[in-house]
Amino acid sequence: PADKNTFGTLAFEDMWPYMGDYDFNDLVVDYRLAVRANAQNKVQNAQMKFYVRAVGADMTNSFGVEFTGIAPDNITSVSGQVLTDGIVTLSGNGTEAGQSNAVIIPFDNVENAINRTGGYFYNTQSGTNPGISDTVVIDVNFTGTLSTTAFLAMDFNPFLSAIK
Description:
mainly beta, 3-stranded antiparallel beta sheet, 1 helix, 4% helix
């Protein structure tokens, strides 16, 4: 979203590339990305906020974001991830290890980012008490060599991975 106070919404179907039930409620995440640059238009840091709105999946999912076109070595540190299941290997700077593009995993198990109020699904059925998600705040610090033009040209590629 272009407005710093507005969240966008991402909706995922976890059976991709198969059609599955095609309801796109397996993971629904609100997100906001704010970027700060210096006077030379070099990206200094970015803050990403994620709020899980719904989980209608039979599988347990993790969630990640790839900055396509930005190398991991353009990032000095990442903090704020909710990584509890030991399924993600991080590089020293907090990006996912072994990737050619910078990949950040905000949470490795959606169950650790939400607070269920009961029931199998989370905020997908009418007549049930709504659950409340934690807001996962990810801070990304850059080396100061990446131009704002290059940052804006990258693809913001959010994805989910079924883990169980």
